[in-house]
Amino acid sequence: ITQGHVFWRNDELVRDALLQLTDALGACHVRGLYHRDVKPENILCSADGRALRLVDFGLAS
Fold this sequence. Notes:
Elements: H1 11-30, E1 43-45, E2 52-54
Antiparallel strand pairs: 1-2
Protein backbone atom coordinates (compact mmCIF):
# COMPACT_ATOMS: atom_id res chain seq x y z
CA ILE A 1 0.00 0.00 0.00
CA THR A 2 3.02 2.31 0.37
CA GLN A 3 3.40 2.82 -3.38
CA GLY A 4 -0.19 3.99 -3.78
CA HIS A 5 -0.44 3.66 -7.55
CA VAL A 6 -3.50 1.38 -7.30
CA PHE A 7 -5.41 4.07 -5.41
CA TRP A 8 -4.35 7.04 -7.53
CA ARG A 9 -7.45 9.04 -8.55
CA ASN A 10 -9.81 6.27 -7.49
CA ASP A 11 -11.89 7.75 -4.69
CA GLU A 12 -14.27 4.79 -4.51
CA LEU A 13 -11.39 2.35 -4.02
CA VAL A 14 -9.83 4.58 -1.34
CA ARG A 15 -13.17 4.78 0.48
CA ASP A 16 -13.60 1.00 0.35
CA ALA A 17 -10.03 0.47 1.60
CA LEU A 18 -10.56 2.80 4.55
CA LEU A 19 -13.82 1.05 5.41
CA GLN A 20 -12.06 -2.33 5.34
CA LEU A 21 -9.31 -1.01 7.58
CA THR A 22 -11.70 0.54 10.11
CA ASP A 23 -13.81 -2.64 10.10
CA ALA A 24 -10.70 -4.73 10.80
CA LEU A 25 -9.60 -2.45 13.63
CA GLY A 26 -13.13 -2.41 15.05
CA ALA A 27 -13.27 -6.21 15.02
CA CYS A 28 -9.96 -6.34 16.87
CA HIS A 29 -11.03 -3.77 19.45
CA VAL A 30 -14.31 -5.59 20.17
CA ARG A 31 -12.14 -8.59 21.09
CA GLY A 32 -9.84 -6.49 23.28
CA LEU A 33 -6.96 -6.64 20.80
CA TYR A 34 -5.15 -3.39 19.99
CA HIS A 35 -2.73 -3.40 17.04
CA ARG A 36 -0.59 -0.43 18.22
CA ASP A 37 1.44 -0.25 14.98
CA VAL A 38 -0.93 0.64 12.15
CA LYS A 39 1.08 2.07 9.26
CA PRO A 40 1.17 1.55 5.49
CA GLU A 41 3.86 -1.13 5.78
CA ASN A 42 1.50 -3.24 7.94
CA ILE A 43 -1.36 -3.21 5.44
CA LEU A 44 -1.23 -5.78 2.65
CA CYS A 45 -3.20 -5.02 -0.47
CA SER A 46 -4.26 -7.21 -3.38
CA ALA A 47 -3.01 -6.21 -6.83
CA ASP A 48 -6.34 -4.64 -7.74
CA GLY A 49 -6.72 -2.88 -4.38
CA ARG A 50 -10.00 -4.59 -3.53
CA ALA A 51 -8.79 -6.67 -0.56
CA LEU A 52 -6.74 -5.43 2.37
CA ARG A 53 -5.19 -7.35 5.25
CA LEU A 54 -3.86 -5.88 8.47
CA VAL A 55 -0.65 -7.68 9.44
CA ASP A 56 2.17 -7.62 12.01
CA PHE A 57 0.44 -7.89 15.35
CA GLY A 58 3.81 -8.09 17.12
CA LEU A 59 3.10 -5.03 19.29
CA ALA A 60 -0.56 -5.88 19.85
CA SER A 61 -1.89 -5.92 23.37
